[in-house]
Recover the amino acids of this structure.
């Protein structure tokens, strides 16, 4: 009995550790999960496992402190769920929309420039932590968020037991 509980705990710890460090060896996600909308016109793009892995590492390093599990700590109304991204103006539930946000973040209605308040690769003076992002890095982290919306139905959804 105790042995079983211990083994389950151990498995849980290993799985959690792997998902946090992103070191679940080489990532191997099926193609459906890696295929995400490219633009608002319905074109799609399939990211490689390597891009997903790079995106996951960048997300953990630079985004997860505010966006753990796709939620937004300081503004729960603007999370990273598929629905939240789809309803933003312009829509952010596609790779180009997401890349645009990482470069030039704007308010949910698209009216205000948020680059003073949110990480932006176009303002390396304000956001040195992502100053060295290449175009490939931006694509990878943007793609990773969209892959998560495919992979995890709870990604970005508010939990009932949270305040
Ligand atoms: C210091 C906290 C913080 C960090 C770090 C952060 N964000 Fe955000 N993010 C926010 C907040 C707050 C909002 C909501 C802004 C608003 O009021 O519209 C947001 C909004 C977003 C949105 C828009 C979501 C939607 O539904 O329209 C995207 C996309 C996003 N962040 C991506 C990222 C990415 C990618 C990173 C890492 C490179 C990142 N964020 C790092 C706090 C953060």
């Amino acid at each position: 009995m105790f042995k079983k509980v211990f083994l389950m705990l151990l498995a849980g710890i290993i799985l959690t550790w792997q998902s946090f460090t992103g070191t679940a060896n080489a990532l191997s996600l099926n193609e459906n999960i890696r295929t995400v909308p490219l633009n608002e016109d319905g074109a799609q793009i399939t990211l490689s496992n390597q891009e997903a892995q790079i995106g996951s590492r960048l997300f953990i390093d630079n985004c997860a402190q505010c966006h753990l599990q796709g939620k937004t700590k300081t503004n729960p109304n603007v999370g990273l769920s598929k629905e939240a991204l789809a309803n933003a103006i312009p829509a952010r539930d596609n790779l180009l929309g997401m890349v645009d946000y990482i470069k030039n973040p704007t308010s949910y209605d698209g009216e205000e420039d948020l680059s003073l308040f949110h990480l932006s690769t176009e303002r390396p003076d304000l956001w040195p932590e992502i100053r060295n992002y290449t175009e490939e890095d931006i694509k990878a982290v943007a793609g990773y968020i969209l892959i998560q919306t495919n992979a995890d139905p709870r990604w970005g959804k508010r939990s009932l037991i949270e305040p």
User: Anything to note?
Assistant: The chain has a mean pLDDT of 90.
